[in-house]
Specification:
Layout (H helix, E strand, L loop, with lengths): L1 H15 L5 H4 L7 H12 L1 H9 L8 H16 L5 H14 L6 H12 L13 H5 L4 H11 L1 H9 L6 E5 L6 H10 L4 E3 L5 E3 L3 H9 L2 E3 L2 H10 L7 E3 L6 H9 L5 E5 L2 H13 L5 E5 L13 E7 L14 H4 L2 H21 E11 L8 H9 L4 E2 L11 E4 L8 E7 L1
Parallel strand pairs: 5-6, 5-8, 6-7, 8-9
Antiparallel strand pairs: 1-3, 1-4, 2-3, 9-12, 10-12, 11-12
Helix pairs in contact: 1-3, 1-5, 1-6, 3-5, 4-5, 5-6, 5-7, 6-7, 9-10, 13-14
């Protein structure tokens, strides 16, 4: 068990110190299920864990030791299959393995107090109550409450998240009925999603189907953005901020006679699109190196449909990706809003007269969502257009994070 704890601490060091996204921090680690559970558990409960530790620490210890303590607190409070004495013992040995043995006594003392529940959490009505209850940064709680009101904000925070991944079927190779037959025959547990896919855990059978391109993992909210675009087969389609390529590939499936121009600014991210399209047998996806913030004269008035799934603060994905709070803050959100306006300005010029543009983000803040949709209408002359029935009602929608759904904003326009 010790190596699971030590590996989790090394990965958390990369996340908390190096600013690495958690999935990248796993690179080079042959991480066990236990290690992954510890890492994601600490990130999900980080605010609450730090609050608990503050009861026993006058100041934060060295980062490595602090991460050992965080892993220990998570294991003590949330792992039912490991005895408390074993957690404390393993963390003490772990801090020695990681070269911080001089502080083993501190780790031992603090975790024994946590094991005895010698701490208290904020009570309802106290300043930190909501933040600690849902383990969310106070600044994020304040921002959501300011935008949506306290009652609606707590409904957002309290909405359950789905532990399974969402798998959609590649229409080029199979059908939902055929995949269902495979899952049933192989006794793969699944639930049907509200987006027409499957909610599954990544078992070996599921991973095999993924590798073959029979299924892919894609958020239902991401699927919804493509449904909102609803491109016609044979039309010219531009996915302006495409990497890693999931939406471009889905468009390509529904429009086999079209060429989907899929852009990104970075060559390594363009390679992700190529890899995704190859796995899904999407030969009509054309990756193109292009900076969406810089006008591309080759694209001027060339496209019938333009998808702007803009780079954003990603706060709508926090229930699945709790490390987002370590990557972005409200200042970053404001900076991104300005970038999004630049991208929208160029995208409008790439659209033919009568063409359709969909603007989407995976965040929940108005400055990146509705305010930019208003900008597209008032400054760029784009006309709000009703969403297809399969994507929602009205000309724009906001999806809040719940169950299998990421938080998402989608607005549809015509030129």
């Amino acid at each position: 068990m010790r190596h699971h704890f030590a590996a989790a601490c090394r990965i958390l060091d990369g996340v908390f110190a190096g600013g690495a996204y958690v999935d990248r921090a796993f690179d080079g680690e042959n991480a066990s299920d236990m290690t992954a559970k510890l890492v994601y558990g600490v990130l999900e409960q980080n605010v609450r864990i730090e609050y608990i530790l503050s009861s026993f620490l006058d100041k934060k210890p060295q980062r490595t030791v602090y991460n050992v303590l965080k892993v220990g607190v998570y294991a003590l409070l949330y792992l039912d299959n490991v005895p408390d004495f074993a957690v404390v013992s393993e963390c003490v040995e772990c801090v020695k393995i990681l070269g911080k043995g001089a502080l083993a006594g501190l780790v031992n003392a603090v975790l024994k107090k946590v094991a005895k529940r010698e701490f208290s959490l904020p009570k309802e009505g106290e300043a930190d109550y909501i933040s600690v209850k849902y383990s969310l940064p106070a600044w994020f709680v304040d921002a959501v409450e300011k935008e949506y009101g306290k009652k609606a904000a707590e409904e957002i925070f309290a909405a359950p998240a789905c532990e399974e991944v969402h798998a959609r079927v590649n229409a080029r190779l199979s059908s939902p009925d055929e995949v269902k037959r495979i899952f049933d025959a192989q006794k793969v547990p699944y639930r049907l999603s509200s987006a027409g896919g499957f909610l599954v855990r990544p078992t070996n059978i599921v991973k095999s189907l993924f590798a073959q391109g029979v299924i892919t993992f894609q958020s239902p909210s991401s699927v919804l953005a493509v449904r909102a675009l609803a491109p016609r087969d044979g039309s010219a389609v531009l996915d302006l901020c495409s990497a890693p390529g999931g939406k471009a590939v889905l468009i390509a499936e529904s429009c086999p006679s079209s060429v989907i121009t899929a852009c990104d600014i970075h060559p390594h991210r363009l390679a992700l699109i190529e890899k995704y399209a190859a796995r899904m047998h999407a030969t009509n996806v054309k990756p193109v190196l292009s900076d969406a913030t810089v006008f591309n004269f080759d694209f001027a008035e060339k496209f019938d449909f333009v998808l702007v799934d803009a780079p954003c603060s990603c706060f709508g994905t926090y229930k699945k990706h709790p490390d987002v709070f370590l990557q972005h803050g409200l200042q970053e959100s404001a900076r991104l809003a300005a970038t999004q306006k630049k991208i929208l300005t160029n995208a409008a010029k790439y659209l033919k007269k009568g063409g359709v543009l969909v603007y989407s983000t995976c965040t929940i803040f108005n400055r990146e969502n509705g305010a930019n949709a208003d900008f597209a209408q008032s400054k760029l002359g784009l006309i709000p257009d009703n969403l297809p029935e399969s994507a929602g009602e009205g000309t724009r929608i906001t999806v809040f994070p719940h169950e299998e759904w990421d938080g998402f904003f989608i607005a549809r326009f015509v030129k």
